[in-house]
Design a protein that fits this description.
alpha/beta, 5-stranded mixed beta sheet, 180 residues, single chain
């Protein structure tokens, strides 16, 4: 029962976070997206053992990528947009400007609960034409993949799971309490 309670808490916190991002974006309050990059950075580093840095802290509004891990050679674009145009544009800019520095490729973390739109993005064949090494099924992450990977850690690496849960509590639950 402890596992179910812990996973339910993770789901609740991530769902609240994504809902808050969606509502803020609906009323043109986009500052939350910048804050979300830092939360995403902490979560991705802990879940996948990356060493991501927030590139927007060194270069304001960094082109095509928000987070970079030089050691693993990968970069992330953190976005709440599910539009194919933005994905194509950022992927093309990445290939042109950043692929040499991040040979492992670009990943997208889509902070949206619109799973049907995310599924359509993953099926889009034009993305492979922009970057033949880009695999939409592996390189586009949504809440579904994040939650599933956190759940796997519950059994595989309980210490990391607890650190992830702590990040969620500190970065999201405290804001949830303020909203009440």
């Amino acid at each position: 029962m402890s596992k179910k309670k812990d996973i339910d808490q993770v789901i609740h916190l991530i769902s609240w976070w994504l809902s808050k991002i969606r509502v803020n974006n609906c009323i043109d309050l986009f500052d939350i997206n910048r804050i979300a990059e830092d939360v995403a950075l902490m979560l991705l580093n802990e879940i996948y053992e990356y060493q991501l840095d927030n590139l927007n802290q060194t270069t304001n509004n960094h082109s095509a990528i928000d987070l970079g891990d030089k050691k693993n050679g990968i970069a992330f674009q953190v976005t709440s947009s599910t539009g194919i145009h933005k994905i194509k544009k950022n992927l093309a800019t990445f290939v042109k400007e950043h692929q040499k520095n991040y040979p492992g490729g670009l990943r997208f973390l889509i902070l949206s609960m619109e799973e049907s739109k995310i599924k359509r993005l993953k099926k889009n064949k034009t993305l492979k034409r922009i970057d033949p090494g880009f695999n939409p099924y592996k390189h586009i992450l949504s809440e579904k993949e994040i939650i599933r990977d956190i759940e796997r850690l519950y059994t595989a690496d309980r210490k990391r799971f607890k650190r992830i849960k702590q990040i969620l509590k500190e970065e999201i639950a405290e804001n949830l309490m303020k909203a009440d």
